[in-house]
Structures are given as structure tokens and as C-alpha cells.
Amino acid sequence: MYKRYEQLLQEKGLTSYRVSKDTGITQSSLSDWKIGKCTPKFDKLKILADYFNVDLEYLTGTSDVKNAANAAVKEAIIKKAFKVPVVGAVPAGIPLEAIEEILDYEEISEETAKKGEYFGLKIKGDSMYPFIMEGDVVIVRKQDTIESGQVAIVMVNGDEATCKKVVIKNGGIVLVGHNPEFTPLYYSAEEVETMPVRIIGKVIEIRRAI
Q: Where is the HTH cro/C1-type domain (predicted)?
């Protein structure tokens, strides 16, 4: 126990005299613990653990985790950093207004998370069938440009969202569904600017419940 106590003194830049003054534990008691003359009682150990803001188990050397509660919080924060919110119910047919509420969360890898900012969107409709089906969640990397032929989430008229393959054509764009029953939607360069038609992200992954 005393070895861990000395380690904490060094880390905090404190002296036993300072600890004694702050906690009310006599210096003679601290000295007796050091030479093994006696064993500290539980109440004194608890005072020291609280003083150093560590768990009792850490102070006594039975654990290497200084503060289990803080460690759990930090772990939760780290895990949360790699979860993306699933927002809105985005139709894969005629564009409908995206819902703002968070429906769920999906996990992404740390490697993926380092490459940008992401969100998930739940698909409604079957214009992208069978590539993307109703109820699927698409993981989207936020970006405002897209290469021709890639699948993106596109905002139309500023408040409508749709999931489509984007084809660049004659300065404008064509929103194409995989389902042949749906007619491609063409927007001229002027319409892209005035409506506007805006790319809000690239679909990088599809999550499908079995």
C-alpha cells in the first residue's frame, strides 16, 4: 500500500506533511505504515483514496485502475465516437422530406471514422431495389461532391432527400434508381443551382437486417 501511496505523492507533487495537514492523518501514522509497524485502518485508507481521487483498490495495490468509474466513462466516450446516428427515413423513390429525429445508431470502424464525418439514413421505397432495399440503413460520409456513377444522398429543393446513383451529364445531373420501373430524374445545370440540388453525402456501406 505504501509504495502506491508514494507513487501518488510523486505524481501529485505532494509531501506527507501536506497530506497530513489536509487529511488529519498524523505523520506518525504515515511513518508507521511505511516501516510496516502497523496496518492502516479502513477509514484512513478511505480518506486517502478520496484525497487522491482514486479507488480504494488502487491505493491498496489490488487494482491498476485508478478510478473505475472514470475509466468506464472514458471507454463509453471512445465507443460513442465510432457510432453514427441513423437519422430520417429517406425514401429510395419519390423524394420525401427527411425526418430529423435520431432513430438508432450504427457502429463504424475506427479506421473508417478517421476518414470523415458520417451518419446513417434509413431507406424507404424500392427505387434502388435490389441494390438497396426498403428498411436498409445506408452509412453516408458527408461530402458535397460525388463522382459520376456513385451512389449518394441528394437534397432536392433544399428540404427533400433521396438515395440515388448520380450520373453527371451535360453539366447537370441525373438521379438514377436501380429499379427499372422508376424513371431517372434529370436536373439541368441551372436547376442544380436554382432549386437547388445538393449532394450531402456518399453512400459507403449498406446495413441490412436479416
A: 7-59
